[in-house]
Structure formats: structure tokens, C-alpha cells
């Protein structure tokens, strides 16, 4: 199964559907994989879909995802957005580059709020909030600074 096919299966999972409810139509994420392939994750008409290749339009956010990290996340058997969110964040912070997911933020803060990305964090509840606080992200100002740091890497 290709990484894009794995993403198609994932967006149908209960945990992914629940997390994506806060995303607005027009939310666009580009995911690139270590085999050179890519896909676009798009919310349109209330439905999240996965399209082959990089998106034609500029994405709001992009992730470079090693296939080993994708497989690790897909092996999680949970419908809890918080638990899944913490595991995803652990992959972002992973010390091993073969398992580290690299986020890039292309949109501004207003667009991220308007398109519901911060709502996804909120759906993670106390589990995600505690993980972020342990990493020094306990306030809106901390999150804003983190977003700006990630945007600066783009």
C-alpha cells in the first residue's frame, strides 16, 4: 500500500473524522513522504479527502512524513483524539530523523484560526494541552511564537 493510500484509509477513521470536524471548508494540507510521493488533504463540502500529488494551490500547512512514522501512527488503535494527538506531537518532537514528522506552516495566524486548525488542537483536550505545556507551550502567546518559528523555517 502506498503512503497516499494509507492516508486515504486514515482520513476515514473515527479519530480522524472527529479531529477534522473543526476544520473549515478550504483547509488544505500537503503531505510529502520519504519515497518522494505527496498528497493533498483537503476539506471541501464538509468532507476530508486525499488527492494524489502536491496541491495546485498553496497549502496552509505541510508535513514531511517518513513512512515509518506514518506506519507507527496508523498502528495506533484509538478513537481518542487526545491520545492520537499526543502521539502525533511525539513524532514531531522525535529525536530520530527516520521517525520525525516535520511541520511547515505557510498560512498566517488569522487563516489558521479561520480554517479551524486551532480547533483541532482543542479537540485533543487535556492530553494535548498537558503535552504542549510540558514542552513550554502553555499559553496562546507561546503557541503564537511557536507558529511563527515554524513559519520562519518554511
Structure description:
With 154 residues, the chain is of the alpha+beta class. It has a single domain (3-153), classed as Nonspecific Lipid-transfer Protein, Chain A. 47% of the residues lie in helices and 18% in strands. It contains 8 helices and 5 strands, in the order H-H-E-E-E-E-H-H-E-H-H-H-H. The protein has helices at residues 3-10, 14-20, 67-74, 81-92, 109-114, 117-123, 125-134, 140-153; strands at 28-33, 38-44, 47-52, 61-65, 102-105. The chain has a 5-stranded mixed sheet. The longest helix has 14 residues, at 140-153. The radius of gyration is 14 Å and the shape is globular. The mean pLDDT is 92.
Number of helices: 8
Radius of gyration: 14 Å
Which structural class matches the secondary elements?
Answer: alpha+beta
SS elements, strand count = 5
> How many domains, as an integer?
1
Q: Percent range for helical residues?
A: 40-55%
Q: Low-confidence spans: pLDDT under 50, at least 5 residues?
A: none
What portion of the residues fall into strands of 2 or more residues? Answer: 15-25%
Order of strands across the main sheet: 3-2-1-4-5
Which oligomeric form is depicted?
single chain
CATH architecture: 2-Layer Sandwich
- Averaging pLDDT over every residue, what do you get? 92
What does the largest sheet look like?
Answer: 5 strands, mixed
CATH topology descriptor: Nonspecific Lipid-transfer Protein, Chain A
Order of helices and strands: HHEEEEHHEHHHH
Q: Shape, please? A: globular
CATH C-level category: Alpha Beta
**Spatial separation of the terminal alpha carbons:** 29 Å
